[in-house]
Amino acid sequence: MKISTIQNKLCCPFDKADLKLEIIEQTVEQDISIGSLTCTACKRFYPIISGIPIMNPDEFRDSEIEKIYYESLSRLGHPKQIENFRLIE
């Protein structure tokens, strides 16, 4: 996923607020392969896995897919507390 796509096109699907990008891993072309988007208003957390942002409504999100992402974050030393798909600060 290209950084410009996130900056120019994506917003939180629930409240249309801006998203904060965190890049964890990029390709040699500087595309995002692993990262996250966090809504600045409602604090919903959307992982980016293999360059694809997972931005489904809460009831359609698959915790098993996202579990792999959270485990990889933990191994990399990026502690995040997520509850009900929202970032807990």
UniProtKB/TrEMBL annotation:
InterPro entries: Trm112-like
Pfam families to which the protein is assigned, alphabetical: Trm112p
Gene3D superfamilies: 2.20.25.10
The name this protein goes by in its record: Uncharacterized protein YbaR (Trm112 family)
Lineage top rank: taxon: Bacteria
The organism of origin for this protein: Sphingobacterium alimentarium
